[in-house]
Design goal:
Blueprint lengths: L5 H20 L1 H19 L6 H26 L7 H18 L5 H24 L5 H20 L11 H8 L7 H19 L1 H11 L1 H6 L4 H27 L10 H11 L11 H20 L5 H29 L1
Helix pairs in contact: 1-14, 2-13, 3-8, 3-11, 3-12, 3-13, 4-5, 4-6, 4-11, 5-6, 5-11, 7-11, 8-9, 9-11, 12-13, 12-14, 13-14
């Protein structure tokens, strides 16, 4: 009969726990490796994939996704979710497009500020329902998803804004390249830097993680949980408003179905990038890699002429895989601690 050494068993358990935490902390490295393998595989099938022009298109396509996914990330870190981001984008895009159409001399910066202000109002409404109405986030934002989408039809009366109705300066907002990169890519990078600093180097950012990790402990330590919850939904609205203005500039139109279903992509980019749906865990670099992975998948499937249905299927599979692996790793960490 073999007698196990308790200290050896404990040491093995600690090593296993440390390994699992390493996987959690350095998940970005795994995503990066997967992206490199995917790029190599797609390039073999479609050599035109690995070109500067194609990667420029990918960066343009994921810029808006990155901005809104970062907003979604702050919400998910608090153990919430914002399903209304797509409808907020659609409503703000329509409203800003009509204003710009009627005021072609309007400064572009003012249009951006208007979009962010409108987004702040919509995001605040979500925050009020959730914090003071005590409505679960998934129910509250599912309701406002439909409300805001309905307001798009009400405001536009079923009409839309076309490219020729928008001034040239407004359309250059996203596609201009004064620094060698499209403005929209630069804006996305600036937003990422700001969110990174906010989450990692400010007291409020640390409070966001605390609320998501252990709400009760955060409350006892003096953190005003309702204030933090309201803030993340407000910020989600602000960034969605910014994304709406960039969307109109990028695609040179505002339609009633603008950004329809976009919320799935933002959740996918966040979760695939390592943001835990249980709250309290998430990094900006991981979310950016998650958005890049989704962009590469969408672009590659288009290049090799695979049905758009598989793009949605791939997003769903990635979400399931990320959630299952996250739950498995965290459960093993808890078992190793016992």
């Amino acid at each position: 009969m073999t007698v196990q050494n308790p200290s050896a068993v404990q040491s093995l358990s600690n090593s296993f726990s440390n390994l699992l935490w390493t996987l959690v902390r350095f998940r970005e490295a795994g995503i990066t490796i997967f992206i490199l393998i995917l790029v190599a595989a797609v390039t073999v099938r479609a050599p035109s994939f690995l070109t500067a022009d194609n990667f420029n298109d990918i960066l343009l396509n994921i810029s808006i996704l990155t901005i809104v996914a970062l907003a979604q990330t702050m919400v998910i870190i608090t153990h919430g979710i914002d399903l209304s981001v797509s409808s907020m984008i659609g409503l703000v895009a329509m409203m800003v497009a009509f204003v710009v159409k009627q005021n072609p001399e309007m400064p572009v910066l003012l249009a951006v500020v208007l979009g962010m202000a409108l987004g702040a109002v919509l995001g605040s409404f979500n925050g009020l329902i959730i914090t003071y109405g005590n409505v679960p986030p998934i129910i509250a934002t599912l309701g406002t998803l439909s409300i805001y989408r309905g307001l798009v039809f009400f405001y536009s009366q079923g009409t839309w804004i076309n490219s020729f109705e928008l001034p040239a300066a407004f359309k250059l907002l996203s596609k201009g390249t004064p620094l060698g990169l499209p403005n929209m890519v630069i804006i996305a990078l600036i937003v990422a830097v700001i969110v990174y600093y906010f989450l990692n180097h400010t007291r409020t950012g640390r409070d966001i993680f605390a609320v998501g990790s252990n709400p009760d402990a955060a409350q006892y330590s003096g953190i005003r949980k309702p204030r933090i919850i309201f803030l993340v939904y407000l910020l989600s609205g602000v960034l969605s408003g910014l994304a709406a203005v960039l969307w109109v500039s990028r695609f040179e139109s505002a339609q009633t179905n603008t950004a329809l279903g976009f919320e799935l992509q933002t959740v996918a980019a966040s979760v695939v990038g390592g943001v835990s749906i249980s709250g309290g865990v998430g990094t900006v670099p991981g979310v950016m890699l998650g958005a890049l992975l989704l962009g590469i998948i969408q672009n590659s499937l288009t290049l090799i002429r695979i049905s758009p249905f598989w793009q949605l299927a791939a997003q769903g599979l990635l979400i399931l895989f990320a959630v299952i692996s996250d739950k498995w790793i965290l459960s093993r960490v808890e078992m190793a601690k016992e």
